[in-house]
Design a protein that fits this description.
Blueprint (H helix, E strand, L loop, with lengths): L1 E4 L5 H14 L11 H8 L5 E7 L2 E10 L8 E8 L8 H15 L4 E8 L3 H9 L3 E12 L3 E11 L1
Parallel strand pairs: 4-5
Antiparallel strand pairs: 1-2, 2-3, 3-4, 5-7, 6-7
């Protein structure tokens, strides 16, 4: 598997991963009625440095890297990750997170923070914890899950 900066030619494949996840409304605090164009605009925001994981020419996943905050908080990175359904459970998210940690270090970030990890996304919580992230805060009933109703979200943090 190769992880590299996304190119314009990757945008359709990335939107094919991102749009259905946002529309499902189960893991990202984003509107579930986003169109494909809105999903593209969000993921490829000028503030995001976008990467893709690919194998044999197929995009298996994507992530973005950005400062979590501006100014005095700009030394803390933030990322969002999504894996294609056919590639889930095959180590793609782990590889992307490991790549993002190294990319963040190279770009001078001192830590990484995830602001809104939905508690029902148990696979992601376990993965981030296995990669050294700690739950540093719980946001009670902060996410309105389409199946489970109001559930907690976690703030997860790791120094680099």
């Amino acid at each position: 598997m190769q992880i590299r900066l996304a190119q314009e030619a990757d945008q359709n494949a990335v939107v094919g991963i991102v749009a259905p996840v946002l529309q499902a409304g189960e893991t990202y605090a984003m509107p579930s009625d986003f169109t494909d164009e809105q999903a593209r605009d969000y993921w490829f925001s000028p503030a995001h440095q976008v990467f893709v994981a690919q194998e044999n020419g197929a995009v298996l996943g994507t992530y973005y890297l950005k400062p979590n905050q501006l100014g005095p908080g700009a030394h803390v990175a933030n990322c969002g990750y999504m894996t294609a359904p056919a590639a889930q459970g095959k180590g793609v998210a782990r590889a992307m997170c490991q790549h993002s940690l190294e990319s963040a270090r190279v770009h001078g970030f001192r830590a990484m923070q995830f602001n809104h990890v939905v508690s029902t996304n148990e696979r992601a919580v376990r993965l981030w914890q296995s990669l050294g992230f700690a739950i540093v805060g719980t946001l009670p009933s902060a996410f309105n899950h389409p199946v489970h109703g109001f559930v907690d979200s976690y703030v997860m943090f790791r120094e680099l």
